[in-house]
Design goal:
Blueprint: E1 19-24, E2 30-37, E3 43-49, E4 52-60, E5 66-72, E6 75-83, E7 89-95, E8 98-106, E9 112-118, E10 121-129, E11 136-142, E12 145-153, E13 157-164, E14 167-176, E15 180-187, H1 195-203, E16 209-217, H2 237-245, H3 272-278
Antiparallel strand pairs: 1-2, 2-3, 3-4, 4-5, 5-6, 6-7, 7-8, 8-9, 9-10, 10-11, 11-12, 12-13, 13-14, 14-15, 15-16
Length: 324
């Protein structure tokens, strides 16, 4: 991740020195559109305000670097693109002559960083893409280093955990595309070391070692929702079919045939015992077929219908006789 910052390329401060062609104000200051060749060999072409670079402009360094963007009081401020001598470039926000805000840095080795910047350094949330391997880091940055929660994504697997000083540290897990996860942690080796070895190791960067402890199935992330009572169980298809086949006798009463004087002969039915006592009232002719049985005159209760469907007496609390 080679990076040549513009802090190594100081721009020449504007003054009356050097050559200038352009607009001036009443006080004789460079003001408006103009072009200047500075004493150190750099050139600037763009807007001026009261003798200082302000607004849109192009600054070219004598070593080949150049800045194309916004200025405020001789400093890069706002949106701008800086192209460095090695071919790398930064496109994004500037503040007080430094990379600050959101921007994209294109490195000379084709790596890229897209994310937040603070005081010329990668700081905040950002994504670094490694062109050689196709891997990328997505997560938190602190003062130019990978630090905090992050995810290192490779071609066929990824690591999720915490990072410190560009290295993973502590608990984490590897997620594989084949549908499993390996849980474990990164920790320093526990081997015994002498004082000289410890001093030498303190000077060099220590790479944590991965210690796996279990493998599980792939766990998909789901948001945590408030628990709700389970819905009532839906009736099965057989129950639905039975419900359709059985007429709703309690909701739809059978027609009540009238007697000769316009009154019904039905009495309140309270239980099955009463029904059995009334059974002899059914008119039954042994000479008639099974499907031709008719109710006794004036009972209003069918033992069998012409279609052959057997109906039981309606189980209502009471059937009141109709009035005149």
């Amino acid at each position: 991740m080679s990076e040549l910052g513009s802090e190594e390329l100081e721009e020449e401060g504007e003054s009356d020195l050097g050559e200038y062609e352009g607009e001036r104000n009443e006080a004789g200051e460079r003001h408006g559109r103009g072009r200047a060749r500075l004493p150190n060999g750099d050139t600037y072409e763009g807007n001026y305000e009261f003798g200082q670079r302000s607004g849109q402009g192009i600054y070219k360094f004598k070593n080949g670097a150049r800045y194309i963007g916004e200025y405020l009081k001789n400093k890069k401020h706002g949106q701008g693109t800086f192209i460095y001598p090695d071919g790398s470039r930064y496109e994004g926000e500037w503040a007080n002559d430094q990379r600050h805000g959101h921007g994209v840095y294109y490195y000379v080795n084709n790596d890229t960083y897209t994310g937040e910047w603070f005081a010329h350094q990668r700081h905040g949330q950002g994504t670094y893409y490694y062109a050689e391997t196709g891997s990328k880091y997505v997560g938190t940055w602190v003062r130019g280093q990978q630090e905090g929660a992050g995810e290192l994504i490779h071609v066929n697997h990824r690591y999720q955990g915490k990072f410190m000083n560009k290295n993973p540290v502590g608990p984490g897990k590897y997620v594989f595309d084949i549908g499993c996860e390996q849980h474990g942690e990164y920790r320093l080796a526990d081997a015994e070391r002498g004082e000289e070895e410890e001093e030498e190791e303190s000077l060099a960067s220590v790479t944590p070692k991965w210690k796996a402890n279990k493998i599980t199935e792939l766990a998909l992330w789901t948001p945590t929702l408030r628990e709700e009572p389970p819905p009532p169980e839906a009736p099965s298809q057989e129950e639905d079919a039975g419900a359709e086949a059985t007429p709703e006798l309690e909701e739809e009463a059978l027609p009540l045939p009238e007697g000769p004087e316009g009154e019904t002969d039905l009495k309140p039915v309270e239980d099955d015992a009463d029904v059995r006592e009334d059974l002899p009232e059914y008119g039954y002719d042994p000479d008639l077929g099974e499907d031709e049985r008719q109710p006794a005159r004036g009972t209003g209760v069918w033992a069998h219908t012409p279609g052959g469907a057997a109906l039981r007496p309606p189980s209502l609390p009471a059937l009141l006789p109709r009035g005149p």
